[in-house]
């Protein structure tokens, strides 16, 4: 399921009972002034007086939620916490008023996520109107248990994902978070309309850019995978909005290739994990132009000094990156803010081809189920 990035921006839905993330055509500031540039169909009551957001999720959905946190905080200015649903159930954060709780689950059936949301709903009801319940779901399954539990959902329209490892649903969860963060930014006036329009234009270009990554990288990554059929450990590093992509790259690799892999914020390497590095441990660094580009390159160079083989997810035609990395997985140059949707693709391909090279069943990895309906 790597190639299908799922629902088209602006797609209309058949089921009117749930909301979808269409983006209206407004890209000029004058038309955007009259109507919201994003139409999520979320009622104003859910957004009113919002002081914080908490997101509950597991696994890959938790990683998408970390990107969501970055967007909600940086674009819409709302403090956002991301919790593992399985942890939240037994140690919930202290209740605060004016909180929107978002459950993120592509299947809509993950037991821990559903139970954490139900617990949150119940403890707010118990405390009365002051702690108003505001629940939102992000899911790929409009008819799932999640959709029955929460009054509003954003459906991700990825199409059914058959492979156990979440790939296209991850990408579409990210798109849902861009839509939500932009909708909130519009309503809270935290971004100029021109910036919102610019991000929407960038989002619309991503499907074609993903095609470019697939076309230009697939063969190369398949070849590269030969080098790692005996590798036992991998490190993935990234910073800022691409730190969760490092986590996701590591999760994809461990889950389908059974290679031990860790994702770290690149700046944390020197606080311990750098001790793991030697010539046998490849390091994959996500280095995209923006606030943390030079920082990631310098973190990558620190790894190189420990003889690690360096693989870089980098902007296309970037000479500086070409000097630093042993292998390049280039993606089109986009605003750093949008880059996770592109940077995750070569990492999904890498996991896929290494697993295939090792003769493993990439769709049905051992010990895993598509939906975890038990605690
Ligand atoms: C990893 C993977 C799992 C799921 C997790 C949550 O590739 O698929 O980590 O992301 O089990 O599943 P959902 O999103 O259905 O709640």
From TrEMBL:
It catalyses: D-fructose 6-phosphate + L-glutamine = D-glucosamine 6-phosphate + L-glutamate. One of its GO terms (cellular component) is cytosol. The keyword Cytoplasm applies. Residues 17-33 have a biased composition (Low complexity). One of its GO terms (molecular function) is glutamine-fructose-6-phosphate transaminase (isomerizing) activity. Keywords: Aminotransferase, Cytoplasm, Glutamine amidotransferase, Repeat, Transferase. It is found in: Cytoplasm. Its main location: cytoplasm. One of its GO terms (biological process) is carbohydrate metabolic process. Residues 42-190, 224-365 form the SIS domain. The keyword Nucleotide-binding does not apply. Homodimer. This is Glutamine--fructose-6-phosphate aminotransferase [isomerizing]. It comes from Limnofasciculus baicalensis BBK-W-15. The gene is glmS. The chain holds residues 330 to 704 of 704 of the full protein.
């Amino acid at each position: 399921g790597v190639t299908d990035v799922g629902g088209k921006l602006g797609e209309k839905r058949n089921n009117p009972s749930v909301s979808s993330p269409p983006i209206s055509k407004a890209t000029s500031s004058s038309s955007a002034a009259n109507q919201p540039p994003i139409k999520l169909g979320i009622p104003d009551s859910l957004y009113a007086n919002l002081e914080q957001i908490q997101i509950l999720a597991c696994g890959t959905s938790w990683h998408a939620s970390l990107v969501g946190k970055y967007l909600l905080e940086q674009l819409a200015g709302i403090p956002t916490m991301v919790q593992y649903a399985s942890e939240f159930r037994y140690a919930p954060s202290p209740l605060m008023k004016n909180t929107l709780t978002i459950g993120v689950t592509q299947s809509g059936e993950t037991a821990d996520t559903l139970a954490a949301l139900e617990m949150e709903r119940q403890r707010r009801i118990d405390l009365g109107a002051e702690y108003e319940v505001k629940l939102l779901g992000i899911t790929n399954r409009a008819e799932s248990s999640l959709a029955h539990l929460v009054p509003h959902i954003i459906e991700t329209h990825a199409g059914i994902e058959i492979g156990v490892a979440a790939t296209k649903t991850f990408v579409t969860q990210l798109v849902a978070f861009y839509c939500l963060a932009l909708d909130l930014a519009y309503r809270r006036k935290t971004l100029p309309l021109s910036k919102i329009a610019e991000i929407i234009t960038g989002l619309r270009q991503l499907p074609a850019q993903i095609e470019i990554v697939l076309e230009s990288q697939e063969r190369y990554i398949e070849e590269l995978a030969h080098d790692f059929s005996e590798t036992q450990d991998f490190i993935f590093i990234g910073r800022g909005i691409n730190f969760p992509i490092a986590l996701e790259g590591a999760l994809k690799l461990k889950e389908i290739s059974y290679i031990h892999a860790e994702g770290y914020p690149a700046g944390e390497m020197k606080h311990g994990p750098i001790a793991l590095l030697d010539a046998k441990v490849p390091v994959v660094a996500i280095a995209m132009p923006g606030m943390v580009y030079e920082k990631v390159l310098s973190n990558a160079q620190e790894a190189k000094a420990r003889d690690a083989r360096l693989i870089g997810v980098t902007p296309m035609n970037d000479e500086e990156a070409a000097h630093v990395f042993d292998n390049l997985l280039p993606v089109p140059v986009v605003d750093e803010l949008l880059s996770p949707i592109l940077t995750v693709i070569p990492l999904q391909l890498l996991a896929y081809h290494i697993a295939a090279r090792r003769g493993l069943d990439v769709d049905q990895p051992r010990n895993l189920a598509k939906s975890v309906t038990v605690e």
